[in-house]
Amino acid sequence: MAVREWVQTACYRGPMARIIQVRDVADDVHGVLTARAQAQGMSLSEYLRGELARMAARPSVDEWLARLQETEPIASPWPSDELVRRARRAA
Q1: Nearest alpha carbon to residue 33 among 20, 57, 49
Q2: pTM of this structure
Q3: Phi/psi of residue 69, nearest 5 degrees
């Protein structure tokens, strides 16, 4: 195997990660995020990568509402206001 082929194989085995660059982050926001990362023993990049993964795992409000529109309503023998009252009393 030629050196060039070896380098290509070693460096590009799987899909490449994407780079996201965020500009114009306020100093106070940067400071808070850096402190949170340090508190967890992580670099800022590691911390933000985790936060972005969590964000991507949850549907946006629009996605959630679209899914909600696709679901069938639940038939209940009780009016919704009565269910709310019962839930409040139980809490």
Answers
A1: 49
A2: 0.61
A3: -65, -25
Distance (Å, rounded) from C-alpha 3 to C-alpha 9?
10
Residue type, 65: L
Beta strands in the chain (DSSP E): none
Per-residue pLDDT tens, the chain, 91 aa: give them: 555 555 555 555 566 678 899 999 999 999 999 999 999 999 999 999 999 999 999 999 999 999 999 999 888 888 989 999 999 999 8
Tokens of 60: 């946006």
Structural domain boundaries in the chain: 24-90
Query: Angle 7-11-14 (CA atoms, 0-180°, nearest 5)?
Result: 135
Tokens of 18: 């994407």
